[in-house]
Design a protein that fits this description.
The chain is mainly α and 178 residues long. The chain has one domain: dinb family like domain (Four Helix Bundle (Hemerythrin (Met), subunit A)). Helices cover 61% and strands 6% of the residues. It contains six helices and two strands; from the N terminus they run ααααββαα. The protein has helices at 8-31, 34-38, 48-66, 83-103, 127-151, 162-176, and strands spanning 112-116, 122-126. The protein has a two-stranded antiparallel sheet. A hairpin with a 5-residue loop joins strand 1 and strand 2 (122-126). Helix 1 (8-31) packs parallel to helix 5 (127-151). The radius of gyration is 17 Å and the shape is globular. Pfam families: DinB. This is DNA damage-inducible protein DinB. A divalent metal cation binds at residues 54, 137, 141. Keywords: Metal-binding.
């Protein structure tokens, strides 16, 4: 595989997109009844709550790996918080990912991070690939979340597509230059 040229700016944009899209999703979650939040609706996970908790758990685990924490918490096995606590934790985790990217040394993008998966398998993958994975993983599950929300009768969703994020950024730039 030929070397792909990546920049910190690109990942800053992706992290900002991820936080924006997750914040939109948190707004939807805030509007759900507890029954909708916990209702069995099968996709990759058995409910909206379980899907959201998986997303938070994965993003948090990556942030902790990036920070070289010796023990990575897998929140999915232990977190029992309320819906509001899930939303707060999701916003906090997305902000932590964005903060990590903003402070990351661009010279290290191609440096592999040694880590272990939850099952103990050891891996070594360049940061740029892991950063892309974190955003892609969240995008994948946000798509599932939209379907799950519609299945429980919530229709107040909107696009969390990357192009939508870029269009909004362009509109803000154009209106600030007027």
């Amino acid at each position: 595989m030929s070397k792909i040229i990546m920049t910190k700016q690109y990942f800053k944009e992706l992290a900002a997109f991820n936080e924006w899209a997750n914040t939109l999703a948190c707004g939807w979650i805030d509007q759900l009844t507890d029954e909708q939040w916990n209702r069995t609706v099968v996709s990759s996970f058995t409910s909206i709550r379980d899907t959201v908790l998986h997303m938070i758990s994965a993003e948090n685990a990556w942030v902790e790996r990036f920070q070289k924490r010796s023990e990575v918490r897998w929140l999915q096995t232990a977190f029992e918080g309320s819906k509001a606590a899930h939303v707060a934790l999701w916003k906090q985790t997305s902000a932590a990912f964005q903060t990590f990217i903003e402070g990351f040394d661009e010279a290290l993008l191609y440096t592999p991070l040694d880590f272990k998966r939850q099952n103990g398998e050891a891996h070594s993958i360049p940061y740029y690939q892991l950063f892309a994975h974190v955003v892609n993983h969240a995008t994948y599950h946000r798509g599932q979340l939209v379907t799950l929300l519609r299945q429980v009768g919530f229709t107040g969703v909107q696009s969390t597509d990357l192009m939508g994020f870029y269009r909004l950024a362009q509109q803000r730039t154009e209106s600030s230059s007027e």
